[in-house]
Amino acid sequence: MELKVNGALIAAYPSKFSVTTMDLDDGDSTTRTADGTLNRDRIAVKRQIDMEWGVLTWVQISALLKSMNNVFFELYYPDPQIGTYTTKTFYVGNRPAPFSVAQGDQVLWSGLKVTLTEQ
């Protein structure tokens, strides 16, 4: 698998990678008829990507977090619905980075999680 943020390979590959194809909330014209039939006004279909990493060094975790620091960024990833690699614009939500262990001057981090949502 190949993952790129703004055209550069990511600093470390995730141990977990999941793509969710999601419908945005329905518009105001979504209604049900008297017999229960749904007339749906889907606004858009977007992607949400969840990634999680195992143990990372300071250098790796710093590079990963910095690569997703902008409000929006380009992600090149394999898309299961399209059936090929694609590039879309995403933003990142919370980025929990649990401390793992210190070895001398080196701190290792384990369990970084990010959720990316298509713009």
Q: Please, could you describe this protein's structure?
A:
It is a single chain. This protein has 119 residues and is mainly β. 8% of the residues lie in helices and 49% in strands. The protein has one helix at residues 58-67; strands at 4-5, 8-9, 16-23, 31-32, 38-39, 45-52, 55-56, 73-79, 84-92, 99-103, 106-110, 113-118. The longest helix has 10 residues, at 58-67.
Summarize the helix and strand pattern as letters: EEEEEEEHEEEEE
Inertia-based shape: elongated
User: Unreliable runs, pLDDT <50, ≥5 residues?
Assistant: none
Question: CA-to-CA gap between the ends?
Answer: 23 Å
Question: What's the helical proportion of residues?
Answer: under 10%
Strand order of the largest sheet: 2-1-8-9-12-6-3
Number of strands: 12
Strand content: over 45%
Rg measurement, Å: 18 Å
Mean pLDDT: 93
Secondary-structure class: mainly beta
List keywords for this structure.
119 residues, mainly beta, 7-stranded antiparallel sheet, 3-stranded antiparallel sheet, 8% helix
SSE map:
Blueprint: E1 4-5, E2 8-9, E3 16-23, E4 31-32, E5 38-39, E6 45-52, E7 55-56, H1 58-67, E8 73-79, E9 84-92, E10 99-103, E11 106-110, E12 113-118
Antiparallel strand pairs: 1-2, 1-8, 3-6, 4-5, 6-12, 7-11, 8-9, 9-12, 10-11
Describe the structure concisely for a colleague:
The protein has 119 residues and is mainly beta. It is built from one helix and twelve strands; from the N terminus they run E-E-E-E-E-E-E-H-E-E-E-E-E. The strands form three sheets. It has a seven-stranded antiparallel beta sheet, with no helix packed on it. A three-stranded antiparallel beta sheet has the order 7-11-10.
